[in-house]
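Backbones bend. Our protein:
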Amino acid sequence: MSVVSYSESSSDSQDGRWDDWEDDEVSVPMKCLFCAQTFDSAAVLFQHAKQAHGFDFLNTRAALNLDFYQSMRVVNYIRTLSLKDPQFSATTNFSIDGTEAFLADDAYLKPAIADDSLLYALDELDLDDESSRQENLARTANAGESAALQEQKLTARIQALEQQLIQREREAKHVSQQFEEYREMVKRQFYDSVETTAAPVSEAAETFAEADGSDYYFNSYAGNDIHMQMLQDKVRTEGYRDFIYDNRDIFQGKVVLDVGCGTGILSMFAARAGAAKVIAVDNSDIIHKARANVIENGLDNVITLVKGRIEELELPVKQVDIIISEWMGYFLLFEAMLDSVLVARDKYLAPGGLLAPSASYIYLTAISDQEYMNERANYWDDVYGFKMSAMKERGPVKEADVDVVPSSAVVATRALISEIDHGTATPATLDFTSSFTLQATQDATVHALLGYFDVAFSRVQATCGPSREELAQPVYTSDGSGAVAPKALWKQPESSMHGFTTGPHGTPTHWKQTVFVLKDPIAVAAGDKLHGQFVCRKSTSNPRELDLEITYFHVPAALKNQIDDARQHAVSQKYQLREPTGPVRVRFAPSPTGMLHLGGLRTALFNYLLSRRYGGAFVLRIEDTDQTRLVPGATENIINTLEWAGLTFDEGPGRSSAGNYFQSQRADIYRKHAQILLDQGAAYRCFCTPERLESLRTSMASQGRPPAYDRNCRHLSQRQIDEKLRLGEPYTIRLLAPNPVDQASAHVGQFDDAVHGHMHFRGPAGFDDAVLLKSDGLPTYHLANVVDDHLMGITHVLRGEEWLMSTPKHRALFTAFGWPIPQYAHLPLLMNPDGSKLSKRNRDGPVQQYIDDGYLPSALVNYTALLGWHPESNQELFTLQELESQFSLSGLGRSKSVVSRERINWLNRQHIRMALGDSERSAVLVKKACKELAKAPNCDAHSADERTVHKALDLCCDRLTFTSELFSKASFMFVDPDLLTPEATKLMNKVPEDSRIPIISCVLSNIQSEFKPEWQSLVKTVAEAAQVPNKQVMMMLRFALTGQSSGPKIPDLLDALSIDTIKRRLHRAAHLQK
């Protein structure tokens, strides 16, 4: 067994980059079951137990047919006996017969000793050596047999072994799945180490939103799915349509601006309503499809489409009469699109012009929904009768949830917390603080507060809707059910206003409602009131997200005059609102320090498949900050290899203009973010010299302590820092790591990994003060990685497990910036068949080697997908499209995967067959084979045309591992065979000499026409005419046509060759007999 180890000297101090399989690992000795002796492998340990202690574990397990869990119980039972009795180590004879009670006792599933690495190794043992025994028997039986017979038997043996391999892999998969359940119980012990004494990180003050981060936001609207979701929302789409069509008179002959036009639907509504000119603006690539939509509907003479940000554009008109825009986000203000609409209003709307919609209102109410709490908030409190509190979301800031809540869950009146007049609002006024009072309408338990919004359309911007004072009047408030009051102004026909609601009382919309789960439920009686304050601000790190804080307290109806007393017990909760169900965005971020290797291809593949499975984006980012280790041509090799494998990236070098995807060209961004952390006290300058750091490492190592920085520069005064800066002393910038024992920051070291499950780091490996910016001003991997993942909107990070130890640092950085943390999945190592770690220096490492060896892209992708991913079915063969539809994170396993050439060879044979059954793929395969045949010596280039090559492939695909073998396996398809070789002579001598000419003559007499006969009947006819067995006819034909003792079936061979070729070769064979 191996575990990931950590070394600051190999990572932070030099910004070290390890490749996917090159983490530092140490071998953990395995203690004998009986005595204190240790061993490096389970196989040697069990051999020792057999010889020294008289217990044959492997044979006992096989004889008693012990399952996985019973094997675990045996190990822990014997270890328990050894711990209880010191004399047990002298045992020389031990056995079990399968009737022992401990074999069914789950108490023995708990490890008897800590860090028992033997438990990890059990799943790697060979469960059945039947294959080896059969191979020995086969070798003995083959002695003295003819070469032909041995070849036939060997071929059959290979096919049988391939089937056994498939079966063994299925069995191994089953054992691995069993072991995962047990491993979870043991695993945590390997990650709990010495606690450090770092000070807690300072609370984030003002952070920074990178300007180019907005481009990634706009790109998220370039796909079709999000627009289909919005268009299918009838409340939204028909609300706009009805306002426009019901008020054609105010659109007639007007100039209209559509901000964020998407598919162009609102622009087309306006054009159909009589607008003279419509200008549609969008900054995402959806604008190209919108242009096609406009043209298809014959409206391109009215609608002009412009790509870009409204803040930066100069439109072809100076003023517009109407601005329409569907800008609303979750909780109305999420995504900050209203800001852009207000900019457009100030730049282009003519005096007296109209915005549609013209006003919006945000409401708050209270809900009681135990079903929702059980399914979402409290799920981990009772999982089949067990508590799993460690799985709950941690940290001082909670995620606001977005969901559809039934109106029956509403148990209080609503409060208006924000009214926005679109004609007068400014971006600055969209942040708001509002007091609220909610009155309970029934006895209930309040689990959460609920936010939603209404929008109103007016014919005249000056009459945008009811004022805050009017809305507070009884005629506008709800009756307690949450429904919009019948007398609400925008619902009145005579008001000429339109509108819609996103509240729980209306038809559900794609905006849903926003749920703020309370820290503790509140029991209320009818008439009780909840008083409080609601604060809504744009996030300082990403202005398209929202930071929210709710302070509230409960005042029972009987104590309504004691509000001040109740306020003393107010509770304050912070929330953040970010995209809860948005598209998956993943990245493959290789370092161009070498050619792409198999581990890197697997990481890229799993990221690609996740993006395709869930309709997201696959980003290629080149992490080239360490310029000293760059290998010329490596970047090109990475890109070309991904393209060869069919893994098309959506964003990356040369693929998108949304941003720069080379980290070496983003240094200013990283320095700016490092300065942010300095300014808010989450990082500090370190002036320690390399000599001091080396001395510190040496000293700590001599004391047996893991290397970690001692914060020598953490407490420098500002005067000392200024003096060192004045003197020009070089410095690095270090992260002020959180204290893992501090409850406010403990969540940094605890997280759920999609592969390894719940992780808990308490040692210095995850919490030392990592270097973020080196003395040369370039970032370390940690800073650049986190900043780029955030700015590029990465939602899931799939990477090698060597980065598992760095994850607490990365989570600490996300937290320090106040950014949402992506979901992590750390992929296990790849291993050689001998159990050693696969390295890029191995022949089986570089992907280019597989390409050069002739593997098909589809076969290598199929093979790579199965290195750690387990499909739900027993399916073995996959196309890339099938992988895209079936891949999921839940199928990823923790066990290391062994790279096997035998396995990929089998898959390559299968994919050759599969390709021949598909016209498009077969054409590619034939062209590949033609190029290879052109290089084959003695091959007649004229005869190696695509039609003949296709026939040859069909004829020999069962015997081909690579298409490059085609000439050696089927040379007879391209050149006349040499009939004087020893193999050909031996085959000819199997046919009696006096039968050879008659057989050839009979065949020739039956194929004089240009039309091929039915070959099976021909063989029978010739055999009867020549008075020889059928077998002799077929051997003579094989000799004349191929000169080989084995090959395709004779009928298939005759069908593949032309009549002229068959005649010519038969005449050659007959001439040889004279």
